[in-house]
Amino acid sequence: MTIPNLLTLARILLTPLLAWFIMNGWMTAAFFVFFIAGLTDAFDGLLARVLNQRSRLGSYIDPLADKLLIVSSFLLLWKIAEIPLWLVLITVGRDLMILSGFFALLYNQVKVEIKPLASSKLTTLFELGTVFILLGKSILEFSGWLYSAFFIITAGFSIISGGQYFYNGMSLYRQHREGTKTGY
């Protein structure tokens, strides 16, 4: 077990605590737990590169930990009326589409390399930023337009990256089908 993987597991374990704080209305505590979870996300990737501890396990559990943290936060913030339903549907729908596509490719024995797109990294950044500013309301005061801007930018990147993953998945599937027809 590498240090980056331990940090990723810590992020997974912090998610239920974050959920509990949000559901109990303890937004300041939720803010700090989310901040710490965000730090684990930043440091796991950095340490994996610096310590040369990239692993196959890490390539699977890191995006899983991110999605668990973000999807849980989005759903719970919607439940307490802090985030609009349309944004939850776009972001969670994108994640479900990507996950479904991944499993469909695996089912069809298409070789898939897990490698995030630049647009996907920006999507995650804005999703994290959206949760950060919403939870940070208890500590920091932001203008109302900032929330709307984060919602729109997050939705935009979610749609763009979702479209790119869909296109890439369909391309992989077509290449696989053409390769199996010609005997490759």
- How many beta strands in the DSSP annotation? 0
Mean pLDDT: 91
Radius of gyration: 18 Å
Q: Which geometry do the CA atoms define?
A: globular
Q: Helix count, per DSSP?
A: 6
Query: What percentage of amino acids are in beta strands?
Result: under 5%
Q: Which regions contain 5 or more consecutive residues with pLDDT less than 50? A: none
Helix content, binned percent:
over 70%
Element order: H for helix, E for strand: HHHHHH
Quote the distance from N terminus to C terminus.
37 Å
Alpha-beta content class: mainly alpha
**Largest sheet entry:** none
Please, could you describe this protein's structure?
With 184 residues, the chain is an all-alpha fold. The chain is 80% helix and 0% strand. It is built from six helices and no strands. It has helices spanning 3-23, 27-50, 56-79, 85-107, 118-135, 144-181. Helix 2 runs antiparallel to helix 5 and helix 3 (56-79) crosses helix 5. The longest helix has 38 residues, at 144-181. The N and C termini lie far apart (37 Å). The mean pLDDT is 91.
